[in-house]
UniProtKB/TrEMBL annotation:
This is NAD(P)-dependent dehydrogenase (Short-subunit alcohol dehydrogenase family). Belongs to the short-chain dehydrogenases/reductases (SDR) family. The lineage of its organism: Bacteria, Bacillati, Bacillota, Bacilli, Bacillales. SUPFAM superfamilies: NAD(P)-binding Rossmann-fold domains (SSF51735). It comes from Salsuginibacillus halophilus. Residues 6-193 form the Ketoreductase domain.
């Protein structure tokens, strides 16, 4: 699917991986809508991008925002789910067991929020006429290498991203009859606001662990893969690691 003149929604699109995707898709002629939780006044204005302050875990809020987005940018053909949060807490520490509230919050935002967007966006995509290829839409979800190589303190985050990876194939199989492809990307360690608080020593260790290139990933590289997924019709039902061959010890 070519993205020119296609309406594509990017969640978490105000910064980081989502921000890079929104900018790249727009540069290729897509009608981009950004969903993010930041107040509009705090978001740098991007010419040509429609912005909606949306909590992706809220059904009614997402449904209303989708309707308004289609009224402005036309039928929905693409969704890139980048919205997410992190957590660093041990299952059992000197302070006691991992609090349930934090675990539930991470699962709610990362996994439930992703599924909420996927199901409601798929309903919109199914309602319009397909391309000549038979495609009606493309959905890209963001997993993580933490789904496979989760570290101490990442129980909640790894569980949420593992859920996204596991969701990919059954969703792709089910939505195939509607001409909707579903792919997940599992990025490694990327230069994003979520990673900004990591101490320099830890950052250097992670760079050293990456076989090649020995650096953090650039959000632009994530965006370029997302664009290719849209353009390559055979890419479906897979979770793609984008990590410089890093395998966390």
């Amino acid at each position: 699917m070519q993205v020119h003149n296609k309406h594509i929604i990017v969640t978490g699109g105000a910064s980081g991986l989502g921000g890079a995707c929104a900018a790249l898709f727009q540069s290729h002629g897509a009608n981009v809508t950004v969903f993010d939780q930041k107040p509009e006044a705090e978001v740098e204005a991007k010419r040509g991008q429609l912005y909606k302050q949306v909590d992706i875990t809220k059904e009614a809020e997402v449904a209303e925002a989708l309707l308004e987005a289609e009224e402005t940018n036309g039928d929905l053909y693409g969704l890139v789910n980048c919205a997410g949060i992190g957590s660093a807490k041990k299952v059992l520490s000197s302070k006691g067991p991992h609090d349930l509230e934090t675990f539930q919050k991470v699962i709610e935002v990362n996994l439930v929020g992703t599924f909420n967007m996927l199901r409601l966006a798929a309903e919109k995509m199914k309602s319009h006429e397909p391309e000549e290829t038979g495609e009606r839409g493309v959905i890209i979800n963001t997993a993580s290498i933490a789904a496979y190589d989760g570290q101490i303190g990442q129980a909640a985050y790894s569980a949420s991203k593992g859920g996204i990876a596991s969701l990919t194939l059954p969703a792709a199989r089910e939505l195939a009859t509607a001409g909707i492809r579903v792919v997940a990307v599992a990025p490694g360690v990327f230069e994003t606001p979520l990673f900004a608080s990591v101490p320099e020593e830890a950052r250097q260790q992670l760079e050293a662990l990456t076989p090649f290139p020995k650096r953090l990933g650039d959000p632009q590289e994530f965006a370029e893969l997302a664009l290719h997924i849209f353009q390559n019709t055979m890419m479906n039902g897979e979770t793609i690691r984008l990590d410089g061959a890093i395998r966390m010890p």
